[in-house]
Amino acid sequence: MTHPSDTGPAPVLALEDISKSFGAVRALRDVSLELFPGEVHALAGENGAGKSTLIKTLAGVHRPDAGRVLLDGEPVVFHGPGDARDAGIAVIYQEPTLFPDLSIAENIFMGRQPRRALGRIDHKATHAATLALMQRLGVELDPDRPARGLSIADQQIVEIAKALSFEARVLIMDEPTAALTGSEVARLFGVVRTLREQGAAVLFISHRLEEMFEICQRVTTLRDGAWISSEPIDGMTEDDLVRRMVGRDLDELYPKQDVEPGQVALSVRRLTREGVFTDVSFDVRHGEIVGLAGLVGAGRTEVARAVFGIDRWDAGEVEVQGRRLTNGAPSTAMAAGLALVPEDRRAQGLVMDMSIERNIGLTGLRTTVRAGLVDRGAERSRSLDWAVKLQVKYARIADTVNTLSGGNQQKVVLAKWLATGPRVLIVDEPTRGIDVGTKAEVHRLLSELAADGVAVLMISSDLPEILGMADRVLVMHEGRLTAEIPRAEATEETVMAAATGRAAA
Amino acid sequence: MPESLTRAVRWDTVVGALLVVLLLLSFSTVDGFGNALNLSFLIGNTLPIALIALPMTLLVVSGEIDLSVASTAGLSGAVMGKLWNDGMAIETIIPLCLLLGVVCGLVNGLLVTRLGLPSLAVTIGTLAAYRGIAQIVLGSDAVTDFPSQYLDFAAGRIGNTFIPQALLPFVVLLAIAVVVLHATPFGRSLFAIGANEEAARFAGIRVRRHKLILFTVTGLMASLTGIFWALHYASARYDNATGLELSIVAAVLLGGIDFDGGRGTLGGAIAGVFLLGALQNVMSLLNVSAQSQIVVTGVLLVISVLGPRVARQISVARAARSAG
Ligand SMILES: Nc1ncnc2c1ncn2[C@@H]1O[C@H](COP(=O)(O)OP(=O)(O)OP(=O)(O)O)[C@@H](O)[C@H]1O
Ligand SMILES: [Mg+2]
Predict the structure, then answer these.
(1) Does A402 touch chain B if contact means CB atoms closer than 8 Å?
(2) Is any Cβ of chain A less than 8 angstroms from the Cβ of B201?
(3) Model confidence over A151-176: pLDDT tens digits?
(4) pLDDT at B7 over 60
(5) CB A218 within 8 A of CB A8
């Protein structure tokens, strides 16, 4: 189905010549966009192109410097997210904003809980409504558990449930799938299709191009805050889209070099953390990239955390380059040459209030030292080196990281760990929220690291990424390693079969 | 300069400016303020707060607090008096008392880092416990007859100036603390821990060890202050320095150290300490009652938590407007 142009229905929500600046940074310049009922509209652009800013302007988080927002053709001014919600606009922001001490159900129905007589909150009804939402999304999450400690993927699910919990005419989703694997994405898309058929308008952001082609009818592209194009997505190729986003042709997305694996660099033996994962054993050799696949909740992140020493293990052992690691001690793991790029950049990867420079510097406090003091010159050049290498888009290296776009924050986390010169590198969703151009860049970097003899363990929910980059794929299912698949035999089918427990290997 | 720092500096400057204004006003309008004796009183009375404010600043930056410091100081003084009465040599007593402070701090630190208890709760508990032990040790005695060269040092001035001799060691300690907090990897880690403990742990920072060290040093400094107090006022009693923690915390927060951790500078904290000290001095000269002085301290405590936040919001709002 192609989409309405001038003769079709009127747009339910439109932006007209919107501009927005943050200090010297012009995040949006004269951007226009029309959202029609019954369409899923993609918003494409590189990291820092202005997508999230546009959404926040639509939702009343930011006030535009110039331009108008039109709802059903009438100019509106939203004074905050509450106004937008009352107008029937549901927004899933890029960074989950849950209250850690409230339960999942309370988070979803914050301020709108079903009431009983005398205004008392009806916990039963809230619970039931939450369960229904979870079923619709096909996930099993206990409505009564607190949000604290939820994985990034689960937090995203809760945000999605929150947006779906009221009848929205417009659903805006900023990278809702970034941490989700195939089956959760399929469920979400099922829900989105139903909403669309009911006449809702959906604005969808993702850095996974195939998702845009799968679910969207039209696409608007932004580059450096400027509007580039709005057009039907039918008939476009991925290359067309990339060219509009980046302004040039893209290098190969998975530039995997063949490397002869060397000695075992990371050896995990019968590692067990009760109730989380059981009897996990595997090796990663110097020069190898090993993919770790599995569904959300399979225990991949938990294994990585334990190996690095964030969580304690109950049984088993871990060796890095022949050195046994101490249980629960990240500093000894680092000293042995291990690095972990964590999945949750805001909670685990960054100190949001600290400068880019000092965030990258945090992993180098032991090395960039002169006479017992932090060597600021060395710290700055170390940080600059890596910020440039990863093409972080920033105004000044001394700016705090909370002024960066999501993808650029992710690059700072990568920089922070690559700067330690690790011999064994565990990356948990390394390209979550990173645009295609930079994704190719990160992949090239990982490939080069491997060629230099670094052992890489890559956890990713992006199956094409695993298939494109890994020499071997390990698959986890419900806390156990269920398969080890060599590169030649790894396909979507074989990996998914093992991940869902359909095949024993 | 990073945004967080410029904001903090702005509040520092506010406090520093307030201090200057208060001093100028007092010199010109308050009788007896400017004479050397009063100035030396002012500094001497503020020194105990200033000494403990040094480690307290580091502790608050890392997201913790120690309310037992005044009790630790009292306990050290009491034990010093008791052992002196029992005829022990002062050269032996002082190291023993310092060791006692280390133990007090270590207990706080272990309770917080090993059992994961909140430091506010732990140190309210030890605040009562340490003071109780002090009373058991010394009862209602007051020990006053310490060796005169020690008393002279703690109360004396440099030549004919108004500067207390004890100010010099304090300045050395201040310099060390500034370097540790603002220039060493240890200090840098404290800011990270206070702002986002989980991210600090993921960066390989030994969070618990850092905190344990801080609590221990705080105990040590508290007992040093207790010894100084007993000598300065030539009186070791179990209730020495009672309530001092309120002034210390108020001064540190007034100086722009964020109660939630991760933000602030030592310069600001020390400006806060002397602002509070000067204010108390002026109030005494103006015959404001002790109770009213406590009220003023309490009000300052509230302002000091609100002030930096309001200042920050104003500067954020201004930045947003200038961006428009
Ligand atoms: N609060 C802020 N203060 C200063 N600059 C900001 C702020 N928010 C966004 N920016 C800047 O505005 C630009 C656009 O950011 P935005 O978050 O909209 O990008 P994005 O397209 O969503 O990127 P990503 O794909 O990485 O999420 C970036 O250069 C970013 O650094
Ligand atoms: Mg974004």
Answers:
(1) no
(2) yes
(3) 888 888 888 888 888 878 999 999 99
(4) no
(5) no
A334–chain B nearest CA distance, Å: 7
Measuring CA to CA, how many Å separate A104 from each of A329, A397, B240?
Answer: 31, 37, 51
Q: Any residues with CB less than 8 A from the CB of A204 and at least 6 apart, and which?
A: A40, A41, A42, A43, A173, A176, A192, A211, A212, A215, A216
Residues A223-254 have pLDDT tens digits of 999 999 999 999 899 889 988 988 877 778 88
CB nearest A363 (choices: B2, B196, B203): B203
- Whether B241 and B32 have beta carbons less than 8 Å apart is answered as no
Check A373 against B192: CB less than 8 A apart: no
pLDDT of B96-110, one tens digit each? 999 999 999 999 999
Helices B244-254 and B266-285 cross at an angle (nearest 10°) of 130
Closest CA to B119 of B199, B56, B189: B56
Contact check, Cβ <8 Å, A348/B192: no
Distance between Cα A55 and ligand 2 center (Å): 9
Inter-axis angle of helices A123-137 and A152-164, to 10 degrees? 110
Which of A28, A52, A227 most suits a substitution to test ligand 1, by most atoms within 8 Å of the C-beta?
Answer: A52
- For the record, the structure tokens of A4 come out as 């309405």
pLDDT score for B132: 97
Q: Give B261-292 as a DSSP string.
A: SS---HHHHHHHHHHHHHHHHHHHHTT--HHH
Would you call A505 an interface residue with chain B, using a CB distance cutoff of 8 Å?
A: no
Are the Cβ atoms of A354 and B203 closer than 8 angstroms? Answer: no
Q: The pTM is what?
A: 0.86
Secondary structure element (H or E) that encloses residue A484, with its range: strand A480-486
More confident residue, A393 or A248: A393
Number of other residues whose CB lies within 10 A of the CB of residue A333: 25
Cα B207–Cα B210–Cα B216 angle in degrees, nearest 5: 140
Q: Give the residues surrounding ligand 1 with Cβ less than 6 Å away.
A: A 22, 25, 27, 45, 47-53, 94, 393, 403-408, 433, 435
Helix (H, G, I), strand (E, B) or coil at A92: strand
Residues of A within 8 A of B191 (CB-CB) are 351, 354
Contacts of A400 in chain B (CB under 8 A): 2-4
Q: Coil, strand, or helix at residue B250?
A: helix
Average pLDDT over residues A353-376: 92
- Cβ within 8 Å of residue A198, ≥6 positions away: none
| DSSP reduced 3-state for B39 | helix
Task: Report residue A252 as tokens.
Answer: 């190969």
Q: For the segment A313-351, what is each residue's pLDDT rounded down to a tens digit?
A: 999 999 999 999 999 999 999 999 999 999 999 899 999
ipTM of this predicted structure: 0.86
